[in-house]
Amino acid sequence: MGLLSAPAAVDKREYWGFCLYDWANSGYVTTVATVLFAPYLTSVAETAACGRVGTVKDPCHTNLQVLGLGISPGSLAFYVVTVATLASALFLPIVGAIADRSPRKKVLMCAFAWSGALAACCMVFVSGGRWELGALLLFLGNLCLGSSMVVYDSILVDIAGPDDRDDVSSRGWAFGYLGGFVLLAINLGVVTAHDALGLSQGTAVRLSLLSAGLWWGLFTFVPFVRLKNRPPASVVPVRGGGLVRQSFGQLFATLRHLKTYPMTLLFLVAYLFFNDGIQTVISVSSTYGEKQLGFETQVLIMTILLVQFIAFFGALAFGRFARRYGTKRTIMSGLVIWMVIVVAGFLLPARQIVPFLAMGAAIGIVLGGTQALSRSAFSQLIPKGREAEYFSLYQAGERGTSWLGTLVFGLVHQLTGSYRPAIVALGLFFLVGLILLSRVDMRRGIAEAGNAQPTLI
Fold first, then answer.
1. Domains delineated in the chain
2. What is the crossing angle of helices 76-101 and 387-395, to 10°?
3. DSSP state of 386
4. What is the per-residue pLDDT across 279-292, written as a single tens digit (0 to 9) for each?
5. C-alpha angle 140-141-145 in degrees, rounded to nearest 5
6. Fewest CB atoms within 10 Å of the CB: 133, 187, 213, 434?
């Protein structure tokens, strides 16, 4: 079996459709959510608040006024992500319940993807002091990303059996990092050579945001063509009403009976904590590098390119480790490395590129692996017919929709005026997640959900 080829028991056509949706949406995740948009939106907000862009030596201390509240321009992007995730807590479970009852899962997934891609394309119009437009588009983009991922994650159960899910999930993440690397490399060239291209740096950044939306939208046609729609399986019977009303009924039934799956619930809570830490590190890394450590945009993009390149191999390596040592043990080892990373981030000296690159390399090793294996492990704990609904709860803490981590990061920055204590505070999320995950009995949880036991977990 080749490094990226489909496992023997998995349909090759659907395997490529599944993996290439990760390739598609990673253009948004890397270029927009991870590297460019948070610092760019911060600069736009600082221009609106102070009439200039803040620097390390001369930061902008004037707050924006939002509904009578003073909001630091440096915390705006993180608060927007927080609000988007709070909205997701209400919206995504309904998306999941509808998806479980719909015979057109892939159509639903692609509709959300194309809506998010449109929001990303419109970011090209965010300039001057129009921070309100930028905040709205970031909110919509993250909400649509989370909604499409609810359906996407549930499709893993449809196309791969229990023994193949670690491989398929890990390779999907690997394709995502490869796609993000390719687009980000192109955008690095545009931003770096903006003078030679006759563009201002701001225009180069906005064109890069546009490219991420186009990338996401165009490559989504691959899963649209290759994935199959399937009739709902083992759907919880709910009397009366149409699809939406029945979906609400299914959701309420699941929430009432969730206590009958204690290991599933415990894994979900553990994941909420440690993934909040992962997603916050991802989303704040470029802002931390620019505003706290004083690096230029080109350095940040080069560092993220390094992360993406190493993460491609890291995701594949974690899949192999899981086959040898077990999924749970491999995830827990990754969380220990994450705790070391955030402590190292607190100690990083300003304007010293080698330590910054070393931290990026460490992030790349564990980034994709912990997330990919968490997805496949959780899929083993879901009762049949409720995959999308359970993954909607799972997605509340997924990439780009973290809320508690970004809230803590924004609050600590606003209280201290520094990003250093904010970054080290994220270590608590990994510690709590590790403790909770250590208490999850995977074999018991799989049996409670009525699923087949994999050979190794």
1. 12-55+64-448 (1.20.1250.20)
2. 170
3. -
4. 888 778 877 888 88
5. 115
6. 133
